[in-house]
């Protein structure tokens, strides 16, 4: 089984290094300066237990890969880049290979299942930072990350079980479920902080807005009959720990602004709550506001934390 990692950023980079060092054949798909750095000298992974380096083939486009029937694709791009990635996979001749959507939100699996028959949803719990080409940092230990995997749509679940075993061997924790949606809804509650983090940074007082965004989500869940999974009992598997010489870059959305990535995934995080709220008649002004403000920062080319707390309070007098 070859493992194709589409999007060698923070999540994909951590996976690429650990899976390569565990003896698996890994092929990456990356772009820009990250692609150049990997081709020139491999990829370095910083962790609480030390540094690891790995070299693996990396390409700019799926059409450069000689695809094999048993290849497994780990899709680790942001959701706003998923449609393009899937179109490129189609153009490369991918058909029956299993695709694992290791991404936040709920849009990716439907995007993929419209085009490919074997799709899995994966919830990723792994605090990582990717700010400089050729280097990623993971802050979890003793396990580097926790993955919840579930088949999306009908079909055999063998590929999911096989990937879970591979991830366990490489130093991660992995669980398979018949229905991964409750775990994704639980993760979404956590991800609602991303847009607030991107807009307000570490300003004191921001936590009130994060709490308000999550309260809106809980109201939406109740209206929609959604019950998120209980994640208690996993604290011993992985906890946040310091990494020598490296500071956390904040949420993935904040890191997108810091890197000048040109896009941000808030439409598929806070925007998912806005969508459900509109479907079920539940107001979601806090999630709508921070989703829109994060995109305005992207368009203006501004860094994370550029929105003042006073601006947010004026816009949301009852939201924080």
Structural class: alpha/beta
Number of domains: 2
Q: Determine the strand fraction and express it as a percent band.
A: 15-25%
Report the CATH topology name of the largest domain.
Rossmann fold
Number of helices: 12
Q: Give me the Rg, rounded.
A: 19 Å
Low-confidence stretches: none
Helicity, as a percent range = 40-55%
- List the strand order in the largest sheet: 5-2-1-6-7-8-12-13
CATH level-two architecture of the largest domain? 3-Layer(aba) Sandwich
Mean pLDDT across the residues is 95
End-to-end separation: 49 Å
Q: Give the CATH H-level superfamily of the largest domain.
A: NAD(P)-binding Rossmann-like Domain
Please tally the β strands and state the result.
14
Text of the CATH class of the largest domain: Alpha Beta
Overall description:
By secondary structure, the chain is α/β, with parallel strands linked by helices. The chain has two domains: 3-179, 3-Layer(aba) Sandwich (Rossmann fold), CATH 3.40.50; 185-315, N-(1-d-carboxylethyl)-l-norvaline Dehydrogenase, domain 2. Helices cover 41% and strands 19% of the residues. It has twelve helices and 14 strands. The strands form three sheets. It has an eight-stranded mixed β-sheet, with helices on both faces. Strands 4-3-10-9 form a four-stranded mixed β-sheet. Helix 7 (193-200) crosses helix 11, helix 8 (207-224) packs across helix 10 (270-280) and helix 10 (270-280) packs antiparallel against helix 11. The chain is globular.
């Amino acid at each position: 089984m070859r493992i194709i990692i589409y999007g060698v950023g923070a999540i994909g980079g951590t996976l690429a290094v650990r899976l390569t060092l565990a003896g698996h054949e890994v092929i990456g798909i990356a772009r820009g300066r990250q692609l150049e750095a990997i081709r020139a000298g491999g990829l370095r992974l910083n962790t609480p237990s030390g540094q690891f380096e790995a070299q693996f083939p990396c390409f700019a486009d799926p059409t450069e890969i000689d695809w094999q029937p048993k290849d497994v694709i780990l899709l680790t791009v942001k959701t706003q880049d998923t449609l393009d990635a899937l179109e490129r996979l189609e153009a490369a001749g991918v058909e029956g290979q299993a695709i694992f959507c290791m991404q936040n939100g709920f849009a990716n699996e439907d995007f993929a299942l419209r085009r490919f028959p074997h799709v899995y949803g994966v919830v990723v719990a792994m605090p990582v930072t990717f700010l400089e080409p050729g280097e990623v940092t993971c802050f979890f230990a003793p396990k580097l990350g926790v993955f919840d995997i579930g088949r999306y749509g009908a079909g055999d679940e063998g590929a999911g079980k096989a990937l879970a075993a591979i991830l366990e061997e490489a130093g991660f924790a992995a669980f398979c479920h018949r229905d991964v949606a409750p775990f994704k809804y639980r993760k979404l509650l956590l991800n609602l902080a991303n847009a607030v983090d991107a807009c307000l940074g570490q300003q004191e007082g921001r936590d009130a807005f994060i709490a308000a965004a999550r309260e809106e989500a809980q109201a939406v869940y109740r209206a929609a009959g959604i019950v998120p999974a209980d994640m208690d009992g996993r604290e011993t598997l992985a906890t946040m720990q310091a990494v020598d010489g490296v500071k956390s870059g904040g949420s993935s959305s904040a890191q997108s602004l810091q890197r000048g990535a040109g896009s941000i995934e808030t439409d598929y995080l806070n925007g998912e709550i806005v969508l459900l709220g509109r479907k079920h008649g539940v107001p979601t002004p806090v999630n709508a506001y921070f989703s829109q403000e994060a995109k305005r920062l992207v368009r203006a080319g501004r860094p994370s934390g550029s929105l003042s707390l006073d601006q947010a309070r004026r816009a949301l007098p009852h939201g924080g």
